[in-house]
Amino acid sequence: MTETQTDPWGTRGRAALWVQALAAAALLAFVLIGLNLLARRFYVRKDLTTERTFELDDATVQRLRALPCDVTIYLVVPGPEAAGDRCVVSVWQKLQILCDEFQRRSPRVKHVLVSEANPTGLEDLRRHFEAPVTNSIYFVGETAPGRFAKKAMTVAPGSFYDGDPTTGKLDNFFGERWMLAGLVAVTTDRRQVVYSVIGHEEATISSGLAMLARFLDEREGIELRPLPLKEAADVPADADAVLLAAPQVPLDAREIDVLKAYLARGGSLFIATVPDSRADLNPFLKEYGVEVRRGVVLDPAENYRGDRRWLRIQRFGEHEVNRGMQNVNMSFILPFASVVGPLAKPPAGCTVTPILFAGPNAWEETGPLTQAWPKPDANELRSTLSDPLPLGVAVSAALRGPAREGRRDARLVVWGSAAALFDYNFVLLGRTNFTNLEYILNQFRWLMGREELIAIPPKRPGQRPMDLSPSALDKIKWVTILGFPVLGVIVGALAWFVRRK
């Protein structure tokens, strides 16, 4: 006699299991759809790449959010002439990602990739630029209906990036700085103006400051104009700052009064001196709590190519103007520098902050530099780790009377090295020293009250955890789309089969 085998699940049990499975699938679909809707409503993006590829500086984000007009960025890809530099491909990939981020964060930004595959973009670009060239970026801002502001940039090594052209290894990518400069140039109503004092055998735009003037204009739209102080009754009203670079002839009392009156209204003054100058500015500077010594600072350890007079600066004071200097990956050079520091008791209302320091082995040489390898004397100032010699200061002086619109203080920057601003200091070993140029620009930004633009650090490519080919990425995509769901179905079927037994 055969025993009748009973079904342990029964019809109702199987039905309940199917209902449970369908309910679980529906719940899972509901959760996934809900999460996607929430993600779309409350969008959050986190950059987890090692190179911070998609991360923008706060200054860039603020500028993008506050753009007053529409801007079109034309990216004209490199031609055959750039084939010798293997860094170019990586640089242009990063530029396109950067433009994608600009466009994503601001509805006023649109970028167009101009290439042989996009002749329409080239035709559109030629409406604004007659002869666009390859490996360049063009900015067009529509400041009013039918009225356009324009800016062109060449993607060159040294300015946009540093790297090895033979291997293609990138050391620094400065693209964000220049892209922000382009946006500022085509969306700013008025150009910033810095007046450079002349008439005292100073460095001038045509003699000594040509590279600085060109950089300020290209980088931030700052115009450097001459100011013959002997003939001027006052500093021009459109001055955003005044530069006094290496005067050799003393300023007379009337000229000093003109500068004082300008500062009293909330003006900004950048003074750069040279050791043992005939133009003694200390009587003027002491009214703002600053003293310049006459010797030259030498450093046997932290210098440029063995010349003790060319200081390699690695120590910076706590001040807004120094934001981001910890990211410096190049040489900041200060040649022929004097000690510049605060008085022991600055005048009331003056805040004097040292911003540049010599190394711990430096000293102030007060005698003639007749020896090939001079050594410090017992009576000469020495730098130490705990008390380094200051080489530059920033001063904020409270105003006592009516001021220019938007200004609450007068601002001064005083450097003991005017040579740091000269053309010959911006070319080191055949390469443009953009670290010095950027740092000088930061001085002017602070003087003009544009601190939000200070310190957009370079992006440094780091080691990548994985370097996958396109075919490998394609395989990963299909494994993710099909492999995991199929695996889930197989595991579910096996579980059902085991439980059924």
In short:
With 501 residues, this protein is of the alpha+beta class. The chain has helices at 10-41, 58-65, 87-105, 119-126, 175-187, 210-220, 253-264, 282-285, 434-447, 470-500; strands at residues 70-76, 109-114, 136-144, 147-154, 161-163, 170-173, 192-198, 222-228, 241-245, 268-272, 290-292, 296-298, 303-304, 307-312, 315-316, 333-335, 340-342, 350-357, 363-365, 390-398, 409-415, 427-428, 431-432. It folds into 2 domains: 58-186, Glutaredoxin (3-Layer(aba) Sandwich), CATH 3.40.30; 191-367 and 380-453, Rossmann fold (3-Layer(aba) Sandwich), CATH 3.40.50.
Q: How does this model look, in words?
A:
This protein has an eight-stranded mixed β-sheet with strand order 8-7-9-10-21-20-18-15. Strands 2-1-3-4 form a four-stranded mixed β-sheet, sandwiched between helices. Strands 13-14-16 form a three-stranded antiparallel β-sheet, with no helix packed on it. The two termini are about 25 Å apart. It is built from ten helices and 23 strands. With about 500 residues, the protein is of the alpha+beta class. It folds into two domains: about 60-185, 3-Layer(aba) Sandwich (Glutaredoxin); about 190-365 and about 380-455, Rossmann fold (3-Layer(aba) Sandwich).
- Named CATH architecture of the largest domain: 3-Layer(aba) Sandwich
Kindly report the spatial arrangement of strands forming the biggest sheet.
Answer: 8-7-9-10-21-20-18-15
Structural class: alpha+beta
Largest sheet: 8 strands, mixed
Count of discrete domains: 2
**What portion of residues belong to β-strands?**
15-25%
Q: Remind me, CATH topology of the largest domain?
A: Rossmann fold
Radius of gyration: 31 Å
Mean pLDDT: 85
Helix content: 25-40%
Distance between the termini: 24 Å
CATH secondary-structure class of the largest domain? Alpha Beta
Number of helices: 10
Low-confidence blocks of residues: 463-468
**What's the total number of strands?**
23
Shape assignment: elongated
